Amino acid sequence: MNIDQMTIVTWNCNGAFRKKYAELAFLNADIMVIQECENPETSIDKAYKEWAVNYLWTGDNKNKGLGIFCKKEISLVRNNWEDNKTKYFISARINDRFNLLAVWNHHAQSPNFKYIGQLWKYLQVNKIHLKEAIIAGDFNSNTIWDEWDRWWNHTDVVRELDDIGIRSLYHEYFNERQGKESNPTFFLQRNQSKAYHIDYVFASTKMFTEVRSIVIGNSSKWLKFSDHLPMIISL
Predict the structure, then answer these.
(1) Got the DSSP string for 3-40?
(2) Facing residues of 37 across strands?
(3) Which end of the chain is more exposed for a tag (fewer CB within 10 A), N or C?
(4) How buried is 71 (Cβ within 10 angstroms: 0-12 exposed, 13-18 middle, 19+ buried)?
(5) Within a 13 Å sphere around the CA of 28, how many CA atoms are in the beta-carbon half?
(6) Does the pLDDT of residue 164 top 60, yes or no?
(7) What is the mean pLDDT of residues 65-89?
């Protein structure tokens, strides 16, 4: 990997990643954050196991968890930060240069802190580690679903991240406001009339000097594989 350039992809593959990972090959990504993917360690698919030579994975279901997959020359080391009993997060050190937090916000059987509430809880114990970091994944959230009497809304999480110098690259690049995104990343039940922006890559303003490009996959291609579209960011 060129230390001055890096391409990151985040994608909720909607399961059966062993049948879909090849679709990402043309992106030549350095780092892929994949939600709802199988654990390569327990997979019986030989090709998938051989492809996943440099990865970290977490989950309660071996067929549907959260994974980070990197090119083999990248140093990928799990940080093992305190998770505050949240689901699902992987914190990792990349090339001993910066921290990466992979996210798949889950309902986690929580009566009060579902989805974005899980990330809010995670931040309360880990913000100290995130001052120079990239956060990528399926947040399952958007400011359009903020609730007036809740203190851990999407807007609250965005504000807490901004307080430590971390901002959404998509919103910075396209100069769009949270909740006013022109490009959806998710189609409920793959219905194009039920489109939402719920996948994000946030990064420390100290870390990147230029976003070279941000691309969200074309729905005509990717909805064959998942209800989410991949987000591809080159820094």
Answers:
(1) TT--EEEEEE--S-GGGTGGGGGGG--SEEEEEEE--T
(2) 65
(3) N
(4) middle
(5) 5
(6) yes
(7) 96
Comparing C-alpha atoms, which of 33, 27, 31 is closest to residue 10? Answer: 33
Whether pLDDT at 3 is above 70: no
Say how far apart CA 92 and CA 78 lie, in whole Å.
4
Residue with tokens 């995130």: 130
Q: Tell me the CA distances in angstroms from 172 to 69, 142, 175, 196, 212, one per residue in order.
A: 26, 16, 5, 18, 12
**Which sequence spans correspond to the domains of the chain?**
7-234
Q: What are the distances in angstroms from CA 17 to CA 27, 144, 225?
A: 16, 30, 9
Q: Judge whether 164 and 99 are in contact, CB under 8 Å.
A: no
State pTM to two decimals: 0.96
Q: Do 230 and 222 touch, CB atoms closer than 8 A?
A: yes
Instruction: Identify the CATH assignment for 7-234 out of 3.60.10.10, 3.20.20.70, 2.60.40.10, 3.10.50.30.
Output: 3.60.10.10
Q: Give the β-pairing of 231-234 and 7-12.
A: antiparallel
What Cα–Cα distance (Å) separates residue 28 from each residue in 71, 96, 234? 9, 21, 11
Among 200, 209, 204, 234, residue whose Cα is nearest residue 12: 200
Residues 96-128 pLDDT 10s:
999 999 999 999 888 889 999 999 999 999 999
